[in-house]
Design brief:
alpha+beta, about 35% helix, 7-stranded mixed sheet, 13 strands, Heat Shock Protein 90
Length: about 450
């Protein structure tokens, strides 16, 4: 507050209770896997090419380690990183937002957060700092401590950093993860094993573009308990029968500036069109096919929300093969009102209006794909000299797009009833054209 702002008035600096506020921030809405993903955001922002997540059961001494080979932090940088509401500014494209993620995500699962970092590959110097909720509660002060160098986990982290720069985040006293009674029991062990599996699946989904090295993104390797995380592409882009509609771009205004939003639309194949039947089951996703349909919203290439149509339309069994990617950059954070945990956004009203026709267009095509009965042979008739699967797919998609464009034109011209009559005649006189254009019911 400036002197001019308080001139002539009494004012008081009132610091919040550290014990009370840190306790409240633990309930911001994370579950285990989303908390891990928020810490991984920091590793990605630090330029890491390898991130190792280790979840170890050892009774009350169970722990989670998240180690990366990113740029690391200096002692002052680490101290600032552990401040609730860091004062540093975030650049466009950075995955951070509020300066709370590392702390709130970690402490939502544990009572002791320790971070060890090395910022120079040339100098083997490391720094370590810790946030201890028990100590903060006892002192009711915003304190960060220097952990003992003899502490086994600190020594282990420094050994991991012996090869170069990077950061290791350690969660201990996992009071929100393990039962208070018998944390050494079989149930606790199985719970950590289950969480490891779910975490790998979650990271493979939200960071799939980074793991795949899409576009100009450097390829990222993530492991969970030594197992490499496999990317989960929601759009089955590698399936020959997947149909992708032309990409669209929109411009919306936020905080006095204009930002760009990209929309990519996909119709996934029905079960009998997948190259591998097991692929269809894998593509059902964590929410399963019906609830997994809809919009997949990416912020700076990181998936933050998926499933459902954002208020544009309802979930329908007949459109379960329809999925669309909505991409925005961090300059539109205010417009999308992204939450602290980076797990939920709200689609701006102006964008919802812009993309509604495109979403309806996608769903018409998905409805056709769903209703189409399985037939032998190719879906579309193509010249016999086109032997390449890519060429067959290109011709088939072009024909389907043409049929869809004709239907949309009839709807927009308020000529749907005459168009249905035309389709009926075509089914009787030229069924091969109906199949080629994807007009089967």
């Amino acid at each position: 507050m400036t002197e001019d702002a308080v001139a002539g008035r009494a004012w008081y600096e009132v610091s919040p209770s550290a014990a009370r506020l840190t306790s409240s921030l633990r309930d911001i809405g994370y579950d285990f896997q989303t908390a891990v993903a928020d810490v991984v955001d920091n590793s990605v922002a630090a330029g890491a090419t390898r991130i190792e997540v280790t979840i170890e059961h050892e009774g009350a001494d169970s722990r989670v380690l998240i180690a990366d080979d990113g740029r690391g932090m200096s002692p002052s940088g680490l101290l600032e990183a552990l401040r609730f509401g860091t004062r540093r500014d975030y650049e466009r494209g950075e995955l951070g937002r509020y300066g709370l993620g590392l702390k709130t995500a970690s402490l939502s699962q544990c009572r002791l957060l320790t971070v060890i970092s090395r910022s120079s590959a040339a100098t083997p110097r490391t720094c370590a700092r810790a946030l201890d909720l028990d100590l903060i509660g006892e002192l009711d002060q915003w304190v960060i401590v220097d952990p003992a160098s003899t502490e086994p986990m600190v020594a282990r982290a420094r050994q991991w950093l012996a090869e170069g720069a990077g950061t290791v985040v350690i969660w201990q006293n996992l009071d929100r993860v393990l039962p208070e009674r018998r944390p050494e029991g079989g149930w606790a062990r199985r719970r950590l094993e289950t969480l490891a599996t779910r975490t790998a699946e979650h990271l493979g989904m939200v960071f799939h573009r980074f793991i795949e090295g899409v576009g100009e993104l450097p390829e990222l390797v993530i492991t969970v308990n030594g197992e490499k995380v496999e990317p989960w592409d929601p759009f089955a882009s590698q399936e020959p029968a997947t149909v992708e509609l032309p990409e669209q771009r929109f411009e919306i205004e936020s905080s006095g500036t204009n930002g760009k939003v990209a929309l990519r639309r996909f119709v996934l194949p029905a079960r009998d069109k997948f190259a591998d039947p097991a692929g269809f089951d894998r593509m059902s996703g964590p929410l399963k096919w019906n609830r997994q349909q809809g919009l997949y919203i990416y912020r700076a290439n990181r998936l933050v929300q998926w499933g459902g149509w954002g208020g544009i339309r309802g979930i329908d069994e007949h459109t379960k093969l329809a999925r669309a990617a909505v991409d925005f950059d961090t300059d539109l954070d205010a417009a999308f009102t992204i939450n602290v945990a980076k797990m939920k956004v709200s689609i701006p009203a102006q964008l919802r209006q812009l993309i509604e026709p495109s979403v309806n267009e996608l769903c018409i095509l998905a409805d056709d794909a769903y209703r189409k009965t399985s037939r032998s042979g190719d879906r579309a008739q193509v010249p016999a000299d086109l032997r390449s699967p890519a060429e067959v797919r290109a011709v088939s998609q072009a024909a389907v797009h043409a049929g869809l464009a004709l239907r949309m034109a009839a709807m927009q011209a308020d000529q749907w009833a005459p168009w249905e009559q035309i389709e009926a005649v075509l089914r009787q006189t030229a069924p091969e054209v109906v199949e080629l254009l994807g007009l089967e019911r």
